[in-house]
Design brief:
single chain, alpha/beta, Arc Repressor Mutant, subunit A, three-stranded antiparallel β-sheet, 35% helix, 20% strand, globular
Length: 373
């Protein structure tokens, strides 16, 4: 057992503080204060660490990558001003998918990829950020290969870029968060956005990243995205854990893109997805529905999980089971709820074959009508 002496304590303390000043008078302390520098107005500050949490399929990568391209191009996006900044995107989880998404985003927003030269960089190999020796080598290579400083880092995803095998292990996730902050600091004080999975069973009201308070305590803001089951519209906002003035929720639609020039070996076009700014035009949110309206809407969503277009007969049968009342009571409740859902555009009347669909269904999906009915 090592004996702790006054001399050993002093040596460890000196090494920890490295001989630098760390005690200040109030005026000396506040003179070092700097005004916030936003990369994305009201959303992302340089030098801050953010989690970006959404369920799988709720547009996390589509939205985050669209932000990255617009930031590198110096283009405003979704009503937010951007400061042209050098971004590094860690695409270790699925680099092949990211390549096609970048091409799709550039085509959809009429951005020449050559505009991004020297401004947007990618890493295609997942590595454990919380493993010091590996991360130090990564930082060394970044500084060797990229002469200018990195302003913002996207980590897609946090799980793919750590050696933690359980995101609910709070103590381990705390260390991951600390390591990510160290990465940002060592890359000239860059900002960092890490894509995270939500806690089990999360809904729009309880959406938070895994890792609990141990992880959340080490970050500066929690960005969130949720796709409404009915409208398929994505809400983007932040939790109460957010440094700065914050911003009002904004909405996005996911657009399915067929990429010309990237046909597979069977002659089918490659498919990708792009996040497009939208406006919340509906009066009712599926998360805000109550009573029989919610039961009837949920019945429609269950039908629509296997079919693009749902007949009134199919919808009514499932809705009656959910309502659980007498035949006459079910009929009245179904008619009222259906009228509300159609008026709020949460369900769309296809106008033929007495069939209905969810909003934002593509024309290609509707072509399947004859085969489905």
């Amino acid at each position: 057992m090592t004996k702790i002496t006054k001399k050993s304590v002093n040596m460890e303390g000196a090494q920890y503080f490295a001989g630098s000043q760390f005690i200040y008078g109030v005026n000396e302390f506040i003179e070092a204060a700097k005004a916030p520098e936003f990369i994305v107005e009201k959303v992302i500050q340089r030098g801050q660490i953010y989690s970006f949490t959404a369920k799988w399929g709720h547009g996390k990568t589509a939205l985050g990558l669209t932000w990255a391209v617009h930031i590198a191009a110096g283009r405003d996006f979704a009503g937010f001003k951007t400061l042209r900044s050098r971004a590094l995107y860690l695409a270790g989880e699925n680099p092949a998918d990211i390549q096609l998404r970048v091409i799709s985003i550039c085509r959809e927003f009429d951005i020449d990829p050559k505009e991004l030269d020297g401004w947007l960089y990618f890493s295609d190999k997942a590595f454990p950020i919380n493993q010091a020796s590996v991360c130090d080598y990564f930082i060394q290579e970044i500084k060797r290969l990229i002469e200018a400083s990195i302003d913002l880092i996207f980590v897609d995803t946090g799980m793919a870029h750590s050696e933690v095998d359980e995101e609910n292990a709070n103590g381990k996730m705390h260390k991951v968060a600390v390591a990510m902050r160290d990465l940002a600091i060592n890359l000239d004080g860059a900002g960092l956005v890490v894509f995270m999975h939500p806690t089990q069973g999360a809904n729009a009201e309880t959406l938070r990243s895994r890792g609990g308070g141990a992880f959340a305590g080490q970050i500066d803001g929690e960005l969130l995205a949720w796709q409404d089951a009915g409208t398929r519209q994505i809400k983007f906002w932040h939790s109460s854990k957010f440094r700065g003035g914050g911003f009002e929720p904004v909405y996005f639609d996911l657009k399915r893109i067929e990429l010309d020039g990237y046909d597979d070996n069977f002659g089918n076009k490659a498919i990708s997805v792009v996040a497009l700014p939208s406006t919340k035009t509906k009066d009712v949110d599926s998360d805000e529905l109550g009573g029989n309206n919610k039961k009837v809407f949920d019945a429609f969503v269950r039908c629509a999980q296997t079919k693009t277009l749902v007949t009134d007969r199919e919808w009514r049968r499932i809705a009656y089971d959910a309502l659980g009342g007498s035949k006459s009571a079910n009929q009245a409740a179904y008619r009222r709820a259906k009228k509300t859902l159609l008026a709020s555009k949460m369900v769309i009347d296809e106008g033929k074959h007495n069939s209905y669909r969810l909003p934002n269904t593509t024309n290609a999906d509707v072509v399947c009508l004859e085969n489905e009915l």
